[in-house]
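Job type: complex structure
Entries:
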Amino acid sequence: NAGVTQTPKFQVLKTGQSMTLQCAQDMNHEYMSWYRQDPGMGLRLIHYSVGAGITDQGEVPNGYNVSRSTTEDFPLRLLSAAPSQTSVYFCASSHGGGSGGSGANVLTFGAGSRLTVL
Amino acid sequence: AQSVTQPDIHITVSEGASLELRCNYSYGATPYLFWYVQSPGQGLQLLLKYFSGDTLVQGIKGFEAEFKRSQSSFNLRKPSVHWSDAAEYFCAVGARGYQKVTFGTGTKLQVIP
């Protein structure tokens, strides 16, 4: 059981380049999300999805796109990278838990992807 | 909108001493509350959670937290800290039927011999 897998672990981009951070989970979780972590700012939600075909914006969505074509995968796209997007990115997933079950909102995190934009 | 405040950016304790990390939340209804731990270079791991019921919850690694509705707090405690507890700790808030989880800015714990 791999949990949440993120690739790549490290990436260096030049300003204006595009790239996709991959995220896959094998736990059949309905909910998936992307956070960025910056020193002193904790984790901030970028985009999230409550199921295949459904995505929504979090706190800091500008400059990022997502799609959810399958339950397992939730890629994060940077269309034109900027130095302000230098960060560590975490993908996380959980069960939907709309009825308040014990797994609701309990996030399983990937190991993170460290992105540097020059 | 939900929010979390962790007032202590950095805390240093001696090994064997007790620990309390503070967390205050803002949410209109009954919150789901969490504490996560992040070791250097790692992802986040769930320490404990509060959904309802007993306001004192036990977690892994000997940690516990107490939900105090009147103070909008969910402080994390451990009676005796070990050197391996050095890490960054994040408090988070969510809500029933609403999947977004909001994190605090974290408290970095240093343990000295």
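Summary: Residues 29 and 118 of chain A are 35 Å apart (CA to CA). The interface with chain B takes residues 4, 31, 33, 35, 40-45, 48, 50, 58, 90, 92, 94, 96-100, 102, 104-107, 109-112 of chain A (CB under 8 Å).
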